[in-house]
Amino acid sequence: MAEVLLFHHAQGLTSGVRAFAETLRAAGHTVHVPDLYEGRVFDDLEDGVAHVQETGFGTIVERGRAAAEGLPADLVYAGFSLGVLPAQSLAQTRPGAKGTLLFHSCVPVTEFGDAWPQGVPVQIHGMDGDEYFVDEGDIEAARALVKSTPDAELFVYPGKQHLFADNSLASYNEEAAALLTQRVLAFLDGVG
Q: Which residues form the Dienelactone hydrolase domain (predicted)?
């Protein structure tokens, strides 16, 4: 079984992120879900984004690194949207990663190093009409990552919802989330 460090999105550690972690736990995986917002949860994505802009993206990445301290090196790093930043940073800079799961976002590999670490499998999941994923360059970063390593997979779902895998939000898409979860569980079984 895999051990996963899962980071929440810009709205905070919602009940939907917690439910996703519980789904992974029910399949036998160990899942750590740190709160990078120190208890704050936002009803609206824009309010969450404003909070992270005030807090600083670098602070969020550092809080993610701090959350990894004391945990084993052989983790699977996972992140929802904003949580992709600490997940991708740790996967690229902390030796020993078993895998990476990037939901709704992907940043260029050059943000955290020269190349994706050899032998670290990664899955990227996003929607083909999601303005954040498509219009802000994340899909291009994901495609470049897939092209750069044989250990990367990109899954693009039909729809325009950004946080479609969080069942506590209006953007939740049950069909796409179920397929994402199926793919994630297969991935974790393969690296666990």
A: 4-189
